[in-house]
Amino acid sequence: MSFCCADLFKLKHFKQVRLAAGERGLYRQISWPFICTTPTISQWLHGGELLFISNAGPDTDEADLLALARESFEKALSGMVLLTGGDSIPTVPPALSRLCDEAAFPLFDMPWDIKLVDITQEISEAILYRRAQSKKGQRFIEQLLFSDDDRRGAGRLLRGVLPSDQVRHGGRFSAGFSFSDSSGAFKIRYFPYV
After folding, report:
1. Residue 159 half-sphere exposure toward CB, CA atoms < 13 A
2. Which of 51, 72, 101, 185 is deepest in the core (most CB within 10 A)?
């Protein structure tokens, strides 16, 4: 269960932020929020981060923002949040919106007076919560299938899921599991060893 750009709109502090471009990229997973304080980002990021551009100032021009967007694409970041208004950049430049749309790279327009500490904290907490939930589900499945304490119980469960020839002949298999957030459904897929 990962946290992606589309999930940002569910957050309390993200309500006033608008998507300026890159709607087709809202599926991109966010690894962590990062507040940009340097003119280049390549050496500081791993990929997947949501980049916040704050206090770019009057010296930052459209060419600088386009270069930063291209660098973000190359580093496979999840998206960019541009703080606009106040002493910062007045509006999202149309050329930046076009570039981000073409790259399916989410570009968000955030009013400069929203507290950055609140929004980055909320994003970080949501990411950590999703990671914990994912690990919890994974541990549950591992215990269910591979616990020494209850092999018979797991075997009974698997007999109802696996084809009878896998159970009858003791065939080896690996399994994949998934949880569905919307319905709460639990699905098991098995892959016989060849």
Report:
1. 8
2. 72
Alpha-carbon distances of 154 from 145, 148, 175, rounded to whole Å: 5, 10, 13
C-alpha–C-alpha distance, residues 118 and 136, integer Å: 27
CB atoms within 10 A of CB 116: 17
Confidence (pLDDT) at 176: 53
Q: How many residues does the chain have?
A: 194
DSSP 152-182: HHHHHHHHTTS-HHHHHTT--EEEEEEE-TT
Give per-10-residue mean pLDDT for the chain (194 aa).
92 96 98 89 92 76 92 97 87 96 98 93 93 75 64 53 47 51 50 50
Instruction: Report how far residue 95's alpha carbon sits from residue 82's, in angstroms, rounded to the nearest whole number.
Output: 14
Residue reference for tokens 């690996």: 174
Q: Is 110 helix (H, G, I), strand (E, B) or coil?
A: strand
> What's the distance, CA 47 to chain centroid?
11
For residues 129, 13, 36, 22, the Cα torsion angle rounded to the nearest 10 degrees is 90
